[in-house]
């Protein structure tokens, strides 16, 4: 078994490699804990890009 973990968007749950198709998942992540934080990580990154990427708002 691999040491990779995924966050399934269909079931809103952490899964090992053997799980739903990758098209329905975020990852892979190195730990179960990192996978469980996938939605927060994505939201935090989006907010950081929104604040710091001038092209985000068309200000390039």
Structure summarized in a few sentences:
33% of the residues lie in helices and 22% in strands. By secondary structure, it is α+β, with helices and mostly antiparallel strands.
Total count of helical runs of at least 4 residues:
2
Q: Sheet bearing the most strands, described?
A: 3 strands, antiparallel
Radius of gyration based on Cα positions: 14 Å
Number of strand segments: 3
Proportion in helices: 25-40%
Shape label = elongated
Overall mean pLDDT stands at 91
Q: What is the straight-line distance between the termini?
A: 46 Å
Q: What fraction of the residues are assigned to beta strands by DSSP? A: 15-25%
Strand line-up in the sheet with most strands: 2-1-3
Low-pLDDT runs of 5+ residues are none
Order of helices and strands: EEEHH
| Helix vs. strand class | alpha+beta
Number of structurally distinct domains: 1
Protein name: SPOR domain-containing protein
Biased composition (Basic and acidic residues): 42-60
Region (Disordered): 22-60
List keywords for this structure.
single chain; 60 residues; alpha+beta; 2 helices; 3 strands; 33% helix; SPOR domain-containing protein
Descriptive report:
This is SPOR domain-containing protein. This protein is α+β, with helices and mostly antiparallel strands and 60 residues long. The chain has one domain. It is 33% helix and 22% strand. The chain has helices at residues 32-36, 38-52, and strands spanning 5-8, 13-16, 25-29. Strands 2-1-3 form a 3-stranded antiparallel sheet. The longest helix is centred in the C-terminal third of the chain and has 15 residues, at 38-52. It is elongated, with a radius of gyration of 14 Å.
């Amino acid at each position: 078994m691999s040491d990779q973990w995924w966050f399934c968007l269909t079931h809103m749950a952490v899964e090992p490699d053997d799980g739903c198709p990758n098209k329905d998942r975020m990852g892979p992540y190195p730990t179960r804990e990192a996978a469980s934080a996938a939605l927060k990580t994505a939201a935090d990154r989006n907010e950081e890009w929104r604040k710091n990427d001038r092209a985000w708002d068309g200000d390039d």
